[in-house]
Structure prediction request, 704 residues.
Amino acid sequence: MIPSLAHLRVRQHVHLARGRRSRTAWWPTLVVLFMAWLVCMGPTAWAQPSPACEAITRLLPPAGQEPAPEQLSAWQVAMQRLNQELASLDNLYRADVEVLIKACELAIRHREFYRDADFAKVDSLLELAETRLAELQADQVPSWKHAAGNQVRGYRSSVDGSAQPLGLVLPERSEEGTQYPLYVWLHGRGDKTTDLHFIHERLSKEGQVQPEGAIVLHPFGRQCVGYKSAGETDVLEAIDFVCANYPIDERRIVLMGFSMGGAGVWHLAAHYGDRFCAASPGAGFAETARYQNLKSEQFPPEYEQILWRVYDVPNYVRNLFNFPVVAYSGENDKQIQAARVMEEAYQGEGRQLTHLIGPGMGHKYHPDTLAEILQRMQRAAESGKPLQSSEFSIQSPHQRYAKYAWVSVDGVQQQYADTRVDASRDEQSGWKLNTRNVQRLVLDAGKPGSPQASVVIDSQLLGLQAGKQNRFQRESDGTWRSVESFPAIRKHPGISGPIDDAFIDAFLVVEPSGSSGNADVDRWVACELEYLRDRWRSLFRGELRSKLDREVNAEDMKNYHLVLWGTPSSNLVMKKIMSASNGNQGEGQESASQGGEASGWAGGLEWSEERVGFDNRYSAANHVPLFITPNPLNPERYVVVNSGPTFRSAHDRTNSLQNPHLPDWAILSLDEPRSAERGGRVVEAGFFNDRWQLDAELTWQNRP
Prediction:
């Protein structure tokens, strides 16, 4: 938010920006603005500067033109007044106004003006915000909610609490009770298509697809993260928002997109297939190594190669057999490579991918081929997703995505290995499940189409409780048995790592109020925390939800993954959680025998004022641990220590690299300066096992 104390109307702001007042008319406003900025910033506005941090170049969004001072002054005055009036309004539709103001604030902060005409977009969005706010203040049902044609709405993200925009194309209102199919269109990469430009386009331009008799949703997807991380949550929450506010038949949701949007379709369809009745990825990419043309000598550390499996779609190909998928490529487009890779994956499972090719086309649709794709999508939407199917598949090397219909894989035998459940039903024997690499299963007999009395798992007949969630665990001899519950501390969907997994859900950053006693560590923590804050604003298009350690309460522990910064000496919450973990140590965890007050937590990590590490202990004066682990005070939430998303600024050059780059834990040496590639030199890294203990077989040392 950019502060101001003046209260002027938007029309006055626009006139001022267009030079319709004298030069001397605006300088007092600038003085007021500066004084208001000092008031809002508090002591930090004139405090001593923090230790100098390494300069890290930001790729997204690129910096553009500066607005003229008179324009900036007028916009600041307008936004301050709008924000003040909006803050006093308790209304369900606040986010519809917030997204407009936020788009302008971020554009000003990051200079997201790339041609002269872009300045007028701020004027337009502020005028629209003024109009919408007036309707809400009058307690009117918003006129924009059901108006036919292009609309922009806002919703509240669970991830960071920010208002996020989405575009809609609404048909003329039909008879009461009419339910529409929903077409979800994922946009391509646009380094400069930030909130300001996305909203302007969604209000003024036709989309790529315009199916009749349907509602079209254009998710923002946090602009340019390949619909991964918070971007994938953005798409799912945008769908949920539209389904909650418009008459959508949730069995008829079609997923389409092109380029980066095509890559998003590949991974979202493969990861969340139970949401869609059909999907059509256009161009894009489907995996990492081949798309990047990497040779073996160019491969990153092995743990990073393992992490490619989180988003590399060939590892999930059987999930795409559950509904129609129609891929598109231009005949002369080099990104036809993605569909060729997926053709191989289909063939490896005895299937054939439907792949339509636009004759003579580069990186764009052939109009006739697009028309054929839309016809196929329309037929799938007319049929809808069946309420009951006779067969389906689950394939996933990552536990977050190992579920479909009424089956969920709760635990695996080997992490990041090919994990499968193939389900089929016949009239005589009912449902049969054949599994691979599955340790724990949850079968929800309360969902449509699920078995009610019994099921056969790997040739073993097992009874079910109708209407309930049934839990099964594989024994050491390979047989299955029913259990009432699973261990509280275990890897399961939503609590399985790696570090990046925490930033898909709601999280709270907890800042330290004290010092570690080590200037180098404190400097690194301050610099990395500021890097995360700036990155979350610029790349993830939101504001970090954050508190000081002494402000965290029981509700925060309950509702959020906690992202703790600092050390047990500097962060009170970290000290509290470490103490709780020490009081509940598992077998094989021992307190440190040297180096002052220390403890064993996070799978046996030992951390004192002198030493830090697992079997190999490093000097705490110039090493920092990064890790993810269940919160011992609430095992259904994570604790992350000293890390944000592990893909960094250098990886933004291509969405195919915006993947996890660190596993469950890592020890960084501060002898290497922070950079756009990494926060320090990785001296050791690895994964925890199923019970969140150190996995010696998945530990790597001294890898650069």
Remarks:
- Residues 1-49, 584-600 have pLDDT under 50 and may be disordered.
- DSSP finds 14 helices and 30 strands in the chain.
- Residues 10-137 form one domain.
- Residues 118-137 form the longest helix (20 residues).
